[in-house]
Amino acid sequence: MACHNRREHTLSCLNALYEQTILDHVAIDVFLLDDGSTDNTSDAVKERFPGVHILEGDGRLFWNRGMHRSFSAAIEKGFDYYLWLNDDSILYRNALEVLLKTNRQLADSGFDTAITGSAMQDATTGNFTYGGVKRHRLRWGRVKLERIPPGENAIQCDASNGNCVLIPASVVARVGNLDPVFLHRWGDHDYCFRALQQGCTVWLAPGYLGTCSENSIEGTWEDTSLPMLERMQKLNSPRGFQFHDYLIYMRRHRGPWWPAHLLWPYIKIFLQSVRP
């Protein structure tokens, strides 16, 4: 896990994790990278969950590099499975049970290096928010990504959002850690795509396994009420697409048309800003 100034989210997430039904049969260790929080997140976690391994960041790691640090600490200790978990994801009590059962069924079917992702829904509306991703190759080499909601059975896909993802040690032995070249975004999809290149598979577990609301676009680069220059600046920020990271991700995984995909958000902002 990685967190920054979301103490109540982090505590709620950990509380749901420690209430999992399968914990009578499965032992867990939690590695939490606190990336320079100023809201006493670390102290609150130490008080409520003294068994959590807390790592300290300087506020400049953001999600991917923070997760890389905590994942690295877990890999160094060595486990049968590793779980990525966002601190704004609240797991249902059977989430780990479903993930482990699904992964073992996949292994019994010959998919012994399978990443298993989770679908999340909005806590209020119940709408699908995060889940799997399929990569479709279209005419002339174009690549399109499709978001995949959960079904009654596990669904094979190409990547998973990093909200809650189970990774067996067999996958880590091939793929290793998240790539720290990415600061905030893209690391989860990049890891899954690299895993496919190493002969692994990616699946979405059946049903919704927790809640995680989508972030509002208000005040982001997608907010059309903001001036064009401000939107461009937000697009290039760590919480936006950040051109350097976006370029690497597109060049790696979006086929020969990656330059067009790379430029499209900038063109979109321009067109939305100049239209009547």
Q: Could you characterize the architecture of this molecule?
A:
The protein contains 9 helices and 13 strands. The chain starts with a strand and ends with a helix. Helix 1 (7-17) runs parallel beside helix 2 (41-48), helix 7 (228-235) packs antiparallel against helix 9 (258-274) and helix 8 (243-253) crosses helix 9 (258-274). Strand 1 (2-3), helix 1 (7-17) and strand 2 (31-35) form a beta-alpha-beta unit. It is 37% helix and 23% strand. The strands form 3 sheets. Strands 4, 5, 6, 7, 10, 12 and 13 form a 7-stranded mixed sheet that branches. A 3-stranded parallel sheet has the order 1-2-3. It has helices spanning 7-17, 41-48, 62-77, 95-108, 169-175, 187-197, 228-235, 243-253, 258-274; strands at 2-3, 31-35, 53-57, 81-85, 90-91, 114-121, 128-130, 132-137, 143-148, 155-157, 159-160, 164-168, 201-211. It folds into 2 domains: 2-211, Spore Coat Polysaccharide Biosynthesis Protein SpsA, Chain A, CATH 3.90.550; 228-274, no CATH class. The model has no long low-confidence stretch (mean pLDDT 96). It has 276 residues and is an alpha+beta fold.
Comma- or semicolon-separated keywords:
276 residues; alpha+beta; globular; Spore Coat Polysaccharide Biosynthesis Protein SpsA, Chain A; seven-stranded mixed beta sheet; 13 strands; three-stranded parallel beta sheet
